[in-house]
């Protein structure tokens, strides 16, 4: 490879690692957001399942490692240091293999993950009580937010709320306000709303003015609608990582002598 090609490869690799540095910051920020968020479906999962909080810490660790790799890649490319480029290539390959493995595990374990999610939301709905203390109210407010935003009710449907202890004690004469499809309840986005005048002595969820769609269907619909974007992002990340591996090994092979005097001194 000529000196001109080596220079082009070097600066392409530098730009790539700059993007990789930014990507690491985004991943780290996403992990921090999962831990800090208190008003969305993520909060419901985080407070009910320790595994999501663990996943958030893993994302923060991966983001920090990615930023470090981007920095080392930039340093190795600009200063033409073979050991840094070799280390960078190895780390990038390990990350790519880990991502593929994680994707396969999620794909083959999706039914068990779905069951765990159903259990988490089922317990939340059963124990939902507007008079709970602040820690539980944060979780319940997050679920109210989910139902209002997705326009859904319960996990599989409004019938899930028939297991709620507060509603059972009220003989189903109230319903969750965040499920409502009535314009008069738009001001109340949490807690329970009263049915008012009743014509039937026996009330069920079928008598409530609520959305028929369960949130499970809403989440699945969102995933299907955005499947192209999700696959595109995953493919783009994999291609970028492969490109970085190719550029780094190519530059590493064509650096015949190393000048460590170029490395910045502290």
Summary tags:
266 residues; mainly alpha; two-stranded antiparallel sheet; 2% strand
Largest sheet: 2 strands, antiparallel
- Apparent shape: elongated
Please give the number of β-strands: 2
What is the radius of gyration computed over CA atoms, rounded to a whole number of angstroms? 26 Å
Order of helices and strands: HHHHHHHEEHH
Stretches where pLDDT falls below 50 for ≥5 residues?
Answer: none
Proportion in helices: 55-70%
Strand order of the largest sheet: 1-2
Structural class: mainly alpha
Number of DSSP helical runs: 9
Classify the oligomer.
single chain
Mean pLDDT, as a whole number?
77
**Residues in β-strands, percent:** under 5%
Q: Give the termini distance in whole angstroms.
A: 33 Å
Characterise this structure.
The chain has helices at 3-36, 41-48, 50-79, 82-108, 110-126, 134-150, 165-169, 215-225, 227-253; strands at 174-176, 192-194. It is mostly helical and 266 residues long. The protein has a two-stranded antiparallel sheet. α1 (3-36) packs across α9 (227-253), α2 (41-48) packs across α6 and α4 (82-108) runs antiparallel to α9 (227-253). The mean pLDDT is 77.
Give the topology, please.
Layout: H1 3-36, H2 41-48, H3 50-79, H4 82-108, H5 110-126, H6 134-150, H7 165-169, E1 174-176, E2 192-194, H8 215-225, H9 227-253
Antiparallel strand pairs: 1-2
Helix pairs in contact: 1-3, 1-9, 2-3, 2-6, 3-4, 4-9
